[in-house]
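Hi U.,

Before I forget, here's the chain from the pilot set. I'm dumping it here mostly so it's searchable later in email.
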Amino acid sequence: MNWMGPATVGLVTTVALMLALRPLAAAGRLIDVPGGRKSHVGDVPVIGGIAMFFGIAAGLSLLPGGGQQYLFMLLAGGILLGIGVLDDRQQVSLYVRLGAQAIAASVMVYGGQLLIADLGDLLGTGVIHLGAGTYVFTVLVSISVINAFNFIDGVDGLAGCLAAIAIGSVAIVSSVVPTPITTVGIVACASIIGFLVFNFPALFNRRLRSFMGDGGSTLLGIVVLWLTISASQGEARPMSPIIGLWFVLIPLADLFTCFIRRIAKGQSPFTPGRGHLHHILLRGKLTDRQVLLTLTGLGATYAGAALVANRIGVPDVVMFGGWTLLMFVQYPLIKKIALTARSQCWKRLRANPAKARDPLLPQA
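Structure:
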């Protein structure tokens, strides 16, 4: 299937909307103002989610049949985008957000007929079928993945890059069989790139800086989930479910690390805080760009390892063991990186005390 035309339309539509919506953001109260846990400089438009949604929709409209088989994906994404945009404008309660996520997951399950029916041969004893628990399990996994991408969206470019890695990896795996998943994945990646032009931490886009907001991060979560389930279920699937988990290891590790630590403190797992992986690196005196490169580098490494493993046929039980180990070591690994970076920063400052007064350097 020719993907060039749909991908180009998705990219151009996203970029065009990022420019067109920018002057309207203030009127729609879609502006992120610094303060509290938000340390960015200046008022930033929160329009990325809207632009990516219509970019993906425009690209999919060029698929055979007008992309009708993905209408339910757009419907589920639209539900999350809508509640996310509302949350970006005014605080929406946790229960409303979780309810919207459950509805979006139900649209995927009942409308798109996408279910996690089995987990593969995770224990080496044969394929694990979920049976009657399929529907509930799929919804719970959906809510987890959606929130994982929402949680990880704390540094410019991070959620977009990690989503592009996951979606791109699914597209690569799916390219070995005749399926539209590859084209849809490329269209989604093109739209994400269109957004990253305005969100990647760089000098060239500083005047046009924009955020994706909760609507954008949850939209990316459902797209990643939809394509991953599509590629990992059924008899002709090009990959097993555990391979898909490797593609989203960093967002899931961040989610579960925060949940476990908050529950251990007697807090709600959804309590806002600064204990995410990117926050730990920022406290280690890494810049936003260094944090982005560190976490996306790890994400790309894990995804690449999974692609190779899928190609050579590594057993599911081995991949599951490796994934579980990595999930547990992410927090100490990130903390070690942060401590090392902080130590090196202080060594440089002690070697040249005059630089400690340089406003361009990270301060304690």
